[in-house]
Amino acid sequence: LPVSLTVDPAFRVGPVRRRTFGSFVEHLGRCVYTGIHDPGHPTADEDGFRGDVIALTRELGISTVRYPGGNFVSGYRWEDGIGPRDQRPTRLDVAWHSSDPNLVGVDEFMRWTKKSGTEAMMAVNLGTRGIQEAMDLLEYCNVPGGTRLSDLRRANGAPDPYRVTMWCLGNEMDGPWQLGQMSAYEYGRLAARTAAGMRMIDPNIELVACGSSGVVMPTFGEWERIVLQEAYEQVDYISAHAYYWEEDGDLGSFLASAVDMDHFVESVTATADSVRAHKKVAKRVHISFDEWNVWYQDRAESRPPTGDDWPVAPVLLEDRYNVADAVVVGNLLISLLRHTDRVHSASLAQLVNAIAPIMTEPGGRSWRQTIFHPFAQASAFASGEVLRVAIEAPTYETAKFGDVPVADAVATWDAETGALALFAVNRSTTDTVEMTVDVRSLPGLTRVVDATSLSNPDHTWQATADDSTSVLPRTNPSVKLDSGTLTVEVPPVSWNTVRLG
Ligand code: AHR
């Protein structure tokens, strides 16, 4: 199938933001315990953190890490997780029907971010708690000293304030599954008052109000409008959460999931701007897409334990990803990048074991899932400015989104280094796409640095602990650059990168 792309520095959307490449560590299943934290592991350090997971986190190119939830945060008492470990209580985690021994808390997590070279994005509990507890946690984290809670942090081994910048005001407060679910108006008021209190402690923080848990929520759109009507002046971001999976064998719609993400971002942007117009203010509220991924919610692994069984770190949400899932993840990254003017932060949910690019065996091996690779490549190669790519492509029909183009792409252009990176997917399940890319408006580009494709004749191939390397991004030998025209053949169901210099 022939596809024509045009890349032009005039199609600038905005800067590549490092925070687009964030992730998420929740006290959920084996994400924390036996995920990032596994004291008996051969690579564990003095805090019990797995060195192999830290190395993989660095390789993945993660920027921010949202913590400690997720649904978990709506019942969390942060004070349980500080001080001597042997005195910390084990608590029910009602969100995931588990027990939490509180061996990892805010101080351990902050040490982990330092070791992994990431930035903490903290969430406060607005489900069962409120303004005071949010302010207490902020005082503990960001006040240098001389007060009860800042001195407690110092006594707990952190003389310098953590100076956490990004704070989420609760989690998915629109969801009936959420502890303390509220109406949009109730939440908007609480978010505004909590934000105002927190800013009185630290005016430098950036605050995220909860948006909708998904576009399918019955309150989608209205929720954002009402929450922002109440909290526009006090917050910097509104969140968006989206998970996709192949439903009933409809691979065509699944591969086009980025169409839905585009719609999500554009709808929330329009809503935020409409509140802005109504309020007659200059400030813009941006989007924190702080949960996104492929998640097979209908699989048994997604169902928490029941009854009297409240296990510590059960196997939960441990999806195994295939090649098609990786192509979708790559396409979702393309969507996030092309909306860099309004999506200022994003978090791949999650980092380890629970719907994650990194898997571990307790005390044993760790490995990369298929979705690891598009994320790592995009994080490593995207730099400078994001350029929207003009695409002329044949379409195919989907049950969910109507006719969609067989290919999707975005580019980044670093004027300082003269590097162009093109990220593209082929959504066709049967045909190779012959891409012709017009790069004549970037005459300095003279050579192909590299071109890779991630694909497999069997798109259901999954990485395992025994074989995680048979399918990787491989050099694409078909690439050619001639007088400002790049050509490359990309296989069916593939994620592709081309770098020019
Ligand atoms: O990421 C898994 C869960 O999905 C999170 O806890 C919740 O916020 C969302 O529903």
Provide the CATH topology of the largest domain: TIM Barrel
Poorly predicted residue ranges: none
In terms of quaternary structure, the protein is: single chain
User: Beta-sheet strand percentage?
Assistant: 25-35%
- How many distinct beta strands? 26
Q: What is the name of the CATH superfamily of the largest domain?
A: Glycosidases
Category from helices, strands and their pairing: alpha/beta
Largest sheet: 8 strands, parallel, barrel
> Judging from the principal axes of the Cα atoms, what is the shape?
globular
- Give the overall average pLDDT: 97
User: Ligands bound here?
Assistant: alpha-L-arabinofuranose
- In the CATH hierarchy, what is the architecture of the largest domain at level 2? Alpha-Beta Barrel
Rg calculated over all Cα atoms: 22 Å
Instruction: Estimate the helix proportion, in percent.
Output: 10-25%
Major sheet: arrangement of strands: 3-4-7-8-9-10-11-12
**N-C termini distance:** 27 Å
Structurally, the number of domains stands at 2
| Separate helix tally | 10
Return the CATH class of the largest domain. Answer: Alpha Beta
Keywords: Carbohydrate metabolism, Glycosidase, Hydrolase
Family: Belongs to the glycosyl hydrolase 51 family.
Subunit structure: Homohexamer; trimer of dimers.
Protein name: non-reducing end alpha-L-arabinofuranosidase
